Amino acid sequence: MRADDTETGTGALAVAAPLLGPFLDGLVGDVERLRVRVKPGTSAALAARRPDGELLLALAYAPHAAAKVAKTARKAGDDLVALAETDGVVVVHARADRDLPGLRSLGELDGVVTPLSYNPQRRFVGRVRGGDGARVVRVVRPSEHAVTTRGARALDGAAGTPRLLAEQPRSGVARLSWVPGRPLDAGASAADLAAAGAALARLHAAPAALPPLTGTQAAPRATARLLAHLLPRLRPRLVRLAGAVERGLADAARDGLAAGPRPLHGDLSRDQLVVGPDGVGILDLDRAGAGDVAYDLGSLLADDRARGHAGGEVLLAAYAEHAPAPRPDALAAHTAAHLLRRSAEPFRTCRPDWPAECVALVEEVERLCSVTTP
Predict the structure, then answer these.
(1) Which end of the chain has fewer CB atoms < 10 Å from its terminal CB, N or C?
(2) Are residues 358 and 287 in the same domain?
(3) Does 277 fall in a domain?
(4) Contact of 302 with 206, CB cutoff 8 Å
(5) Contact between 294 and 252 (Cβ < 8 Å)
(6) Per the database entry, which stretches of residues form a coiled coil (predicted)?
């Protein structure tokens, strides 16, 4: 990932530069960068993986927060991997992620844990293979445990969703059933897409009591602010775009829901849908809540646009055969909002050409919102 381009917000990225360039490789050897989080001008956190599969957490701090470097290294103890105090960088084993204390207990599980995803200081997902088959283990911040398990608790396996098997709220650990299948990827057949549409209709019709989704209008503007830090030359366009997205969402909300509040996945994308022996399963309910089905379907369409997937119209047509379809204006507004939320993902996932990819996503949102670039 480039971190020295003057057009990519060097000032905002300065604190993250040691993690994104060759400095980190010189410190710990070659690593695969998985996901980065940045607080502009303050700190950065990077999830990285060594060739042997070991997960690392690399942290970088701005000079005004330099005291945290030694403190973090001291608290890591034997989990300290590398320290470059004068450069504000400390690297630890992922299990020393202080925001995810449950990671330290994974060694106590009955079975071998294979990491599936790691968002530093936010979430870990792994697959556990033991004598009783495969299970999923999730670790989040303890303060977020109740929110991230409420979907699985309320749906309890409905519509092919995972069941909550066990939990440790104080450490933020939850174990869930494994939903077998292959992802509904770019090469999905029309039959698979139609089955996915029917599965989503069942999810939205499930008798699950969930609280309303929150932060749905604030999230796109938060992403626009981050992207304006990363790509300052886009700031005026992002300000206009965030305003247009907010107006679209407000208009959709004012006109009312198409079919009343429904159970929602909350973060729907194709990689959350799997085609298995018992039909289509729906994974990852960490952000489940209640609201307009246009929110979920817009999220799926935005993911398709971001990844260049085709076939969304087949899925929507199948959905409409089983449940009331959302209003076109509401679907368009939520698609634009979700695509704006995804516009910083190329940076967050450490894509080599992230500036160009982020700009391309912003341009796509502009087309959806009919916002003209000056």
Answers:
(1) C
(2) yes
(3) yes
(4) no
(5) yes
(6) none
* Tokens encoding 205: 């019709």
Decide if 52 is inside a domain.
yes
CB-based contact 219:341 (threshold 8 Å)? yes
Rounded to whole angstroms, the Cα distance separating 189 from 374 reads 41
Q: Are residues 213 and 332 in the same domain?
A: yes
pLDDT tens per residue, the chain (374 residues)? Answer: 444 443 445 566 889 999 999 999 999 999 999 999 999 889 999 999 999 999 999 999 999 888 899 999 999 999 999 999 999 999 999 999 999 999 999 988 777 899 999 999 999 999 998 777 899 999 999 999 999 999 999 999 999 999 999 999 999 999 999 999 999 987 889 999 999 999 999 999 999 999 999 877 788 999 999 999 999 999 999 999 999 999 999 988 887 766 678 999 999 999 999 999 989 999 999 999 999 999 999 999 999 999 888 889 999 999 999 999 999 999 999 999 999 999 999 999 999 999 999 999 999 999 999 876 66
Angstrom distance (rounded) from CA 136 to CA 118: 13
Burial 189-224 (b: 16+ CB within 10 A, else e): eeebbbbbbbbbbbbbbbebebeebeebeeebbebb
Which pair of structure tokens corresponds to residue 237? 């366009």
Ramachandran angles phi, psi of 104, nearest 5°: -70, -20
Global pTM?
A: 0.92
d(CA 307, CA 192): 18
Would you call 296 exposed, middle or buried from its count of C-beta atoms within 10 A (0-12, 13-18, 19+)? buried
Q: Which residues pair with residue 324 across a beta bridge?
A: none
Q: How far apart are CA 284 and CA 188, in angstroms?
A: 20
Among 292, 330, 329, smallest CA distance to 212 is for 292
Q: Is residue 167 part of a domain?
A: yes
236: domain range? 182-369
Task: Please count the structural domains in the chain.
Answer: 3
Mention every residue, 6+ apart, whose C-beta is less than 8 A from residue 232. Answer: 9, 11, 12
